[in-house]
Amino acid sequence: MTGTGMLASASDETLIRKALRGSERAWLKLVRKYERRLYNYCLRMTSKREDALDLMQEIFLCVYRNLPNYHGDGVFPAWLFRIAGNKVVDFYRKRARDPVNQASEWQDDWQSQHATRSDEQAVGDNRLITRLLECLPPEQRLVVELKFFQQFTFEEIAGQMEISANTAKSRLYAALGKLREHEDLSHAM
Questions:
Q1: What does the buried/exposed string (b/e) look like for 73-96 if buried means 16 or more CB atoms within 10 Å of the residue's CB?
Q2: Which residues contact 166 (CB under 8 A, 6 or more apart)?
Q3: Domains along the sequence of the chain with CATH
Q4: What is the pLDDT of residues 78-135, one digit of tens each?
Q5: Do 171 and 143 meet the contact criterion of CB atoms below 8 Å apart?
Q6: pTM for the complete prediction?
């Protein structure tokens, strides 16, 4: 059994085959099956709802375009999240080069610092988790996401990120060390 709990299910394989033959209904079922999990992943990785939605759409588009390259010889969620991980890396590369985005981030930070208490209560624990993850570099955040939220093994993470299992472990432990140092973590416990 893998970290995801199962290999690509027969229903995944059936939906993929039908989608490859042109069934829009099968493709939409496959999207619906994974959209919540992928959205939560994107939200934790980007920290912003709009960015998460944009990234999720980009990921599903990439999956659709590359579906003929999925041969059913692995775990479909692992293949999906490998694509997602690559898109997250691309997202951060683009963000780092975009001065307009940097100004927008400053404005978003200011607005979030001045949010009302009722807004903070609505966001709840997810906001705390997101804030904690924001203090991590993208490669560490990705390992934390894949290990704890997607429940992949270190070997699966290594395959998705094209790194060794030991590198995946060291990134996770470094991330956990940073999270322990972060002052908000003490408030969460």
A1: eebbbbbbbbbbbebbeebbeeee
A2: none
A3: 10-188 (1.10.1740.10)
A4: 899 999 999 998 898 887 765 544 444 544 554 454 444 444 443 455 666 777 788 8
A5: yes
A6: 0.62
